[in-house]
């Protein structure tokens, strides 16, 4: 548990903008006491802790490694807001990432994180790889802790 | 129960799954097929066949499968009024997608040279009248998927799939469910399709694959990128055809292409609308 908390701290987790609601378990704040969560699930079987999470994802572009900043807002396991911040090193990537950032928010609002059961996925894109990278980090840091 | 073999080739990740063991010699052969293909067509290698054509022109002898690729590319070229053309290679390079990945456009977009003025793809020989940088990204990755699958079938594999990061071909009983990735967000899908025996390929205008040949869809008639259609998926018997049609659908009406090819498709336009063939009705989430 402690190791998990300190790992989140090191990752710069913005974590706990969720607040107030007594039924909602607090997001990790770096305080070891906050890590005393119910085993593996939140209230009403909720999988992820409410809150705003920021992460940086990286992906390999032909011009070298690029980064993209992703901020997700989670409420009762549903993504309610997405912000994508391009942070490219070269102008072509800027164009691609801005196009990506422009289309993403409208599309993703209100969809669950783990919804589908499929064998394969067709249509991967390179910027998406960076988004996935960031989303995976958020997924693991937002998940209620197992004992 | 199934065996998997994952590797990197022609600038993307590959995964082969089979119900039978993938023997070391078979794995070696898969890698050899990829290496031979790359050595022939990669415009990002100083020692490739197409690089030689771009430096000094002349002729490039191809293995037998080169005939089918040339025929398909010519057919797509004609059906798209010249929008799909291997001669888009030098336009891609000029726009910064060059062997050095400079990402610095050296000229304003301009039309690619006309096929008949420069290029003759006769059977298994490519001849260029003057030095020309060719790009077979429109269908090349699909063809390599086919070559690998057909090799594995010849080795007795009877429930097998070759997946080159979303361009795939399967042979076996039953079917699998494949998600169609949202063009702007890989954590979402816009629908699912069932893949029995056959190929499913995908193209998105924000995609960068095939050592970078196809990440950017350029219209050979104008040299500019295409932004009306943002993503395409095609189901067809083989992956080369499916891959090529994915590119052609950025430029041509599906109805026109369907007079020459048998396939099913999903298109997504930049405004979020989708269009799909009748048998796929219901594939997209409501």
UniProtKB/TrEMBL annotation, chain A:
Residues 134-147 have a biased composition (Basic and acidic residues). It comes from the Bacteria. Residues 13-68, 123-147 are annotated as: Disordered. Residues 13-23, 30-46 have a biased composition (Low complexity). This is FMN-binding domain-containing protein. It comes from Arthrobacter echini.
TrEMBL record, chain B:
Its EC number is 2.7.1.180. GO terms for molecular function: metal ion binding; transferase activity. Pfam families: ApbE. Its cofactor is Mg(2+). It comes from the Bacteria. It catalyses: L-threonyl-[protein] + FAD = FMN-L-threonyl-[protein] + AMP + H(+). Keywords: FAD, Flavoprotein, Magnesium, Metal-binding, Transferase. This is FAD:protein FMN transferase. The lineage of its organism: Bacteria, Bacillati, Actinomycetota, Actinomycetes, Micrococcales.
């Amino acid at each position: 548990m402690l190791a998990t908390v300190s790992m989140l701290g090191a990752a710069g987790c913005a974590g706990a903008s969720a607040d107030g609601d007594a039924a909602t378990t607090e997001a990790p704040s770096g305080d070891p006491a906050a890590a005393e969560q119910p085993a593996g699930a939140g209230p009403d079987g909720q999988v992820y802790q409410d809150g705003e999470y920021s992460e940086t994802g990286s992906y390999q572009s032909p011009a070298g490694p690029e980064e993209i900043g992703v901020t997700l807002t989670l409420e009762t396991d549903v993504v309610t807001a997405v912000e994508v911040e391009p942070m490219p090193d070269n102008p072509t990537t800027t164009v691609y990432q801005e196009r990506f950032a422009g289309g993403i928010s409208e599309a993703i609002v209100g969809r669950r994180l783990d919804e589908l059961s499929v064998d394969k996925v067709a249509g991967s894109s390179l910027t998406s790889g960076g988004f996935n990278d960031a989303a995976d980090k958020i997924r693991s840091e937002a998940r209620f802790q197992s004992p | 129960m199934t065996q998997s073999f994952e590797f990197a080739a022609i600038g993307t990740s590959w995964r082969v799954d089979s119900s039978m063991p993938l023997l070391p010699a078979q794995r070696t052969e898969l890698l050899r097929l990829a290496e031979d293909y790359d050595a022939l067509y990669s415009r990002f290698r100083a020692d490739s066949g197409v690089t030689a054509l771009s430096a000094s022109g002349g002729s490039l002898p191809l293995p037998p499968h080169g005939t089918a690729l040339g025929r398909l590319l010519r057919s797509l070229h004609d059906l798209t009024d010249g929008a799909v053309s291997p001669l888009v290679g030098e336009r891609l390079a000029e726009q910064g997608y060059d062997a050095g990945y400079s990402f610095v456009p050296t000229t304003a977009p301009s039309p690619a040279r006309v096929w008949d003025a420069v290029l003759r793809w006769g059977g298994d020989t490519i001849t260029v009248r003057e030095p020309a940088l060719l790009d077979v990204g429109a269908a090349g990755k699909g063809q390599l998927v086919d070559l690998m699958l057909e090799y594995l079938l010849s080795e007795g594999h009877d429930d097998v799939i070759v997946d080159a990061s979303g361009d795939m071909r399967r042979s076996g009983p039953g079917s699998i469910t494949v998600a169609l990735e949202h063009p702007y967000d890989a954590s979402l899908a816009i629908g699912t399709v069932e893949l029995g025996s056959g190929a499913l390929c995908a193209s998105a205008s924000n995609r960068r694959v095939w050592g970078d040949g196809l990440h950017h869809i350029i219209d050979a008639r104008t040299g500019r990128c295409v932004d009306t259609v943002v993503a395409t998926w095609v189901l067809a018997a083989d992956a080369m055809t499916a891959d090529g049609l994915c590119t052609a659908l950025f430029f041509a009406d599906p109805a026109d292409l369907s007079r020459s090819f048998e396939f099913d498709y999903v298109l997504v336009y930049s405004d979020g609308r989708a269009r799909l063939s009748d048998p796929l009705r219901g594939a997209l989430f409501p």
